[in-house]
Amino acid sequence: MRTIATCFLSGLVIAVLGCAAREESTIPEKVTTALETCFARHDPESCAALYTEDAEITEPRATTLRGRAAILQYFKEQIVPDLQMFTDTQVNLVQGTLGVVEGTYRIRNMNTRTIVEDGEYLDILTNRNGDWKVFRSFFVPRHAQGVDVSVSPSAEPTQK
């Protein structure tokens, strides 16, 4: 079901791009890998700065995050030193000021060398004054360990 929804959403975005200007190119790699880079530096502020002020992050099992402030809070809660994010871009399309990047992601615990989450993502970006920013981001986890991660020293992880 998630794959069907992702395919439908991808098709819808491609159709919208088809109606935009005919100037075609791709979003630069430094933009498509920026989240991975910020995550590796444990820098939630830089992660949030990759999104527009009115951006949204949607994940099927969570509440949609709306606005850069909520996105910053999310990254402050999610980025911990032991975790690294890896992405593999499979689709990169641009027409006019809209872009679509689609691929897979993995979040790995570097201490235990285990994948704690993996899945697919779809980002819709907008180019505002020559600067690419994520406007909408969709994450669809395929696998996630049933452990809540907390940055609080007193909190114990719990099994879901």
Explain the layout of strands and helices.
Blueprint: H1 2-19, E1 24-25, H2 29-32, H3 34-40, H4 44-49, E2 51-58, E3 65-66, H5 68-78, E4 83-95, E5 98-109, E6 114-128, E7 131-144
Parallel strand pairs: 2-7
Antiparallel strand pairs: 1-4, 2-3, 4-5, 5-6, 6-7
Quick structural overview:
The chain has 160 residues and is of the alpha+beta class. Helix content is 29%, strand content 41%.
List keywords for this structure.
160 residues, alpha+beta, 5 helices, single chain, 7-stranded mixed beta sheet, Nuclear Transport Factor 2, Chain: A, 29% helix
Please describe what this structure looks like.
With 160 residues, the chain is an alpha+beta fold. The protein has a single domain, classed as Nuclear Transport Factor 2, Chain: A, CATH 3.10.450.50. 29% of the residues lie in helices and 41% in strands. It is built from five helices and seven strands. Strands 1-4-5-6-7-2-3 form a seven-stranded mixed β-sheet, with helices on both faces. Strand 6 and strand 7 (131-144) form a beta hairpin. The longest helix has 18 residues, at 2-19. Mean pLDDT is 82; it is low at 4-8 and 147-160.
